[in-house]
Structures are given as C-alpha cells and as structure tokens.
Amino acid sequence: MLEKSPAVISIQNLEKSYQNGRQANKVLKGINIEIQPGQIIGYIGPNGAGKSTTVKILCGLLPDFEGDITILGYDLRTQPIEIKKRIGYIPENAALYDTLTPREYLQFVGELHGMAHDDINQKIGKLLNLFEMKAHADERLNSFSKGMRQKILIISGLIHNPAIIFMDEPLSGLDANSVIIVKEILTQLARDGKTIFYSSHIMDVVEKISDRIILIDNGNIVADGSFADLNSKDHTGSLEKLFTELTGTSGHSKKAEEIIHVFEN
Ligand SMILES: Nc1ncnc2c1ncn2[C@@H]1O[C@H](COP(=O)(O)OP(=O)(O)OP(=O)(O)O)[C@@H](O)[C@H]1O
C-alpha cells in the first residue's frame, strides 16, 4: 500500500476573532485541514467568509489565533521565521515601493530572502521575460497599471523558490494571456512538488487547476474534495452552481431585477 506523505500544512481547530469595539467577532470557527505536498488547493467562499484571514494567518501575518498550525513541520506560533523562509505570499493588492523599478524591487526581495546576487539577477531576467515585463524592468513602479503591478507581486512571491505558495486572488487585474501563463506556472510548480494554496472567486480557474477544493462559508468548511467528488455528490455540473447551492446565494436574477426596480421607482 502507498504511504501517505506527511502533511505540509496541518491546521487543527483554527479559530480567529476580530475585536469590534468591545465585541469579539468570530470569523473562523474551527477549521481543520491537512494538505499533502504537490497539491493545488482551491480555497473558495463568499465575500467575508474568512478566506483572506486564513491565508494571512498561514503566512504568519496574524499571530493572534486559536488552534494549532504546522507548516513544513514547523510550528507557526513558535517557528514563524523558519516558515516565512520557505513560503511565498501573493496577495491581491500590496503596497509596492513606488519609487523603485521592478528590477530594484525584486533585487530587494531576493536579498531579504538571502539569495546570492547572481541567482537573483538570473531569476529576475527569466521571470520578467516570462511575464512579458522585461521592457519595463527599469521603469518606476508608480507608472504601472494594476495588472503590471500584480505581475511584479507574483514574481516577488516566487523568486526565492518557495516550497508552498499562498495566493489570495492572484489573477486580479491580469489580462487573458497572463491568466493562462499563471495557470500553467501553477500546474508546473505543483508537478515539481510545490504546494499551492489558492484563494479566489474566479470559479472556472479554480475548477480547472485545483486538485482539491475547500469551500468555506461564514467561518466553517462546508465542502472539501476534488471537483469530480463534489460534483458527483451534488450533481451540480459546475463549481459556480455548487458554490451558490452550498452557500445559499441563489436567486441572482430575482436580486438583479429588484436592484433595477430601485432605479426605476
Ligand atoms: N482587520 C479586521 N478587523 C475586523 N474585522 C475584519 C478584519 N479583517 C477582516 N475582518 C472581517 O472578517 C470577516 C472575514 O474577512 P476576510 O477578509 O477573511 O473574508 P474573505 O473571505 O477573504 O472575503 P472577500 O472574498 O470579500 O475578500 C469579514 O466579516 C470581515 O469584515
């Protein structure tokens, strides 16, 4: 019998509350996930479900949480630096140093990761080329469009060759060609044994690239499995339909009609 590889991400009873004045607002209510290496995990859910909160906790950006998390065998509470060295985080939006050029910014990121100069420069050249950004390597970031900035963020999350890549709505602002490139990159990274934790609203991309889909709603996991498993269980046909059925957000055309009525009256 094939032995199961040890989990690269282990989340046990994860709970998180934000303080709202005097009241605690619990947004993660007991999340349990074990993730094997080389998988692409699609982490989906409605607005406010707790996706970004989960990703930020896993990347060590929100240290105040309940439960136990180990990543690559390191305890997130006591060994966050060991984890941060080995993961990449690609958020939807992040402040880039606007006065720098992509080359300068990426050199800075590479140095923070302790990479050798030659290695940094070689990776920068290859990745900028791949994302069709080489011509802009020495222009200032403050002149960049949303999609161009997003490409630089993606490169900065990959440059140090992390074992796990956390992505929070990474395709935001990218054109169709760039989306295809990112999809291909993710598939190949997973083939090379990297683990990808991918949080997104873009259902057809999640459906196509994910080995496993985890759907959260209101801080709880409501579905967890491959698209084929989830689809055969609920007979829905598409991830979008499954999403709306399980998160109770159906009746869209009626809602749209009501919104139009607001303008008409
Ligand atoms: N810094 C914060 N302080 C207080 N409440 C917060 C904070 N960040 C998030 N929340 C609340 O936590 C809940 C989950 O937010 P989160 O950003 O994790 O959701 P999400 O699933 O990523 O949503 P979206 O799809 O809209 O990005 C929401 O109710 C949100 O209002």
From TrEMBL:
PROSITE patterns: ABC_TRANSPORTER_1, ABC_TRANSPORTER_2
ABC transporter domain location: 9-243
Key word Zinc present: no
Molecular function in Gene Ontology: ATP binding; ATP hydrolysis activity
UniProt keywords, alphabetically: ATP-binding, Nucleotide-binding, Transport
PANTHER family linked to this entry: ABC TRANSPORTER ATP-BINDING PROTEIN ALBC-RELATED (PTHR42939)
Protein's UniProt name: ABC transporter
